[in-house]
């Protein structure tokens, strides 16, 4: 466990009678190399529920779980599923160390029904132009506007997630090897992301302007690549706000929170473009899946295969999806999905 994780543990304060067990469970998660931000949040929520309703209880019954479940009933089904699996895993941990605890059934697996917006080449052109045209109405030292054009281009060019982009530090950028090291990823695995000549020029220009900010340490290896005017790490919400403004300036209709188009759709678009380029160069569509999986940092080919089907739907003349192969893929997906559920039940995934 590194120093950051130790601070993470020390900052987590639980108050119910199961606080020691919650802390120990969280420590076990971190020791296995998983990112525990979501788990910490769910445990904190359940801790507050216990303090409010069962302050003197050190056991968990099905009725108690059902009561907690009812407090989340208005959330979307996918969020409920994610929260429930965390608690069920914690309850199993309690049983494993000798506590009396009921284990509720795992709720049904729900998928997000959101259909990603794949930006056209024209939309991307207008969007990037809009990002370059963004202006502040007044001087705001804490603004992150200077970094927005470079951030958006980085997301589109590399297909990385916004959280990964904002966690990049100066030392992670290697212009000599033309790559960026991602050390804080969704699945906790380090990976290298190639940067092309166009993105490299953008990043070099951004860095030259950023380094003019009169702040000590802004060029140090451990400082973040993308910072606001005060030299601090940029929060996701700030990037999202500017992105929505850029969408409107580019004439791309924004349908509201959760309805898109979203910042994350740049990643979906990058994946589709990767398939388009590979298939257009004469490669077999299905042989491209491992390459796209590596490009996106996917832990299973199933995730990347989704983008192949999405590309085929957009370009039926480019990619001919053979029914027999599609049928096999569907069967494989069902097996992979079942295995993923089993891993969650057994505590292999957090």
From TrEMBL:
Domain Tyr recombinase: 114-320
One Pfam family hit: Phage_integrase
Lineage: superkingdom: Bacteria
GO MF term (any one): DNA binding
Keywords: DNA recombination
GO BP term, pick one: DNA recombination
Name of protein: Tyrosine-type recombinase/integrase
